[in-house]
Amino acid sequence: MEQGKSGRALVVGGDSLVGSALQVRCRKLGSAVDVTSRRPVGQQDGGTVFLDLGNPDFTPLQGGRYDAAFICAAVTSMQVCQAEPARSRRVNVDNTLELMRRLADRGTHLVFLSSSQVFDGETPMPDEAASTNPKNEYGAQKLAVEEAIEREGLPAAVLRPTKVLADRPVGVFKGWFEALAKGQPVQAATNMALSPVMVGDVAEAAGRLAAGRHRGVWHLGSSDEIGYFDAARLMAERRGLPVSLVKGEALTEAQVPQIYRHRYVTLRCEKIARTLPMPVRSARDILDTLFAGFPR
């Protein structure tokens, strides 16, 4: 699928954050796009194929010919993966790889959405060649797919994003914003940081990797990191909310176990910046973009 040219793409996990953004990008470029979803057939849009990687029936995809496929579907909750390793591994590793092999056999170029969780977070700014050492089951499952891609020579690019942010208020940022807007205090972690990247940039990077039929591992994130406490204060400042209501707290093991926390969260991204090229912005610049879209 050439950049800017028509071609058929498949987004596996079209309801996901990145999958939704990829659909938008493909259609803007004039590419026909099919998506898979676990939603019941009666709740699906046109061009949507039912696929549950927990118990997959690949038959509906057998007739399709795709220039590129973006593999976004997964059990993404790290806590669920940790608590249910067999079930989540069946989705995230076994059946994901089976789907990728079937697509590759028909000449489809693959882009696999991995994670910075393949590292243990003890090394500052690891590049794509750095040693991996996941400390939770989710990271181990992502790494298992990466290793199979290399071992089997699948035609795939592996994209490891850091903390992917939606282009609207969701999650912890939405909770902070709504509480501060009501004059209520919020608690933000002083011992956790994020290296944010906007979902649109992840979709753009994935699309460029597919267009160039690139292979290998690629990192995408911000050029630095910011603590959650500082991020909450920045949001308050940018939206004219009371900064004094942002309180810091050190998270305990009971609140967020160490296996889900990294000392260093920033990845080295020179490869993707140089080759595609993709912009690698500072954490504060990215958060400024996010917060600018919050309601006034």
Automatic annotation (TrEMBL):
<feature type="domain" description="RmlD-like substrate binding">
    <location>
        <begin position="9"/>
        <end position="289"/>
    </location>
</feature>
<dbReference type="InterPro" id="IPR029903">
    <property type="entry name" value="RmlD-like-bd"/>
</dbReference>
<dbReference type="GO" id="GO:0048269">
    <property type="term" value="C:methionine adenosyltransferase complex"/>
</dbReference>
<dbReference type="GO" id="GO:0008831">
    <property type="term" value="F:dTDP-4-dehydrorhamnose reductase activity"/>
</dbReference>
<dbReference type="GO" id="GO:0048270">
    <property type="term" value="F:methionine adenosyltransferase regulator activity"/>
</dbReference>
<comment type="function">
    <text>Catalyzes the reduction of dTDP-6-deoxy-L-lyxo-4-hexulose to yield dTDP-L-rhamnose.</text>
</comment>
<comment type="similarity">
    <text>Belongs to the dTDP-4-dehydrorhamnose reductase family.</text>
</comment>
<dbReference type="InterPro" id="IPR005913">
    <property type="entry name" value="dTDP_dehydrorham_reduct"/>
</dbReference>
<dbReference type="Pfam" id="PF04321">
    <property type="entry name" value="RmlD_sub_bind"/>
</dbReference>
<keyword id="KW-0521">NADP</keyword>
<dbReference type="GO" id="GO:0006556">
    <property type="term" value="P:S-adenosylmethionine biosynthetic process"/>
</dbReference>
<protein>
    <recommendedName>
        <fullName>dTDP-4-dehydrorhamnose reductase</fullName>
        <ecNumber>1.1.1.133</ecNumber>
    </recommendedName>
</protein>
<keyword id="KW-0560">Oxidoreductase</keyword>
<dbReference type="InterPro" id="IPR036291">
    <property type="entry name" value="NAD(P)-bd_dom_sf"/>
</dbReference>
<comment type="pathway">
    <text>Carbohydrate biosynthesis; dTDP-L-rhamnose biosynthesis.</text>
</comment>
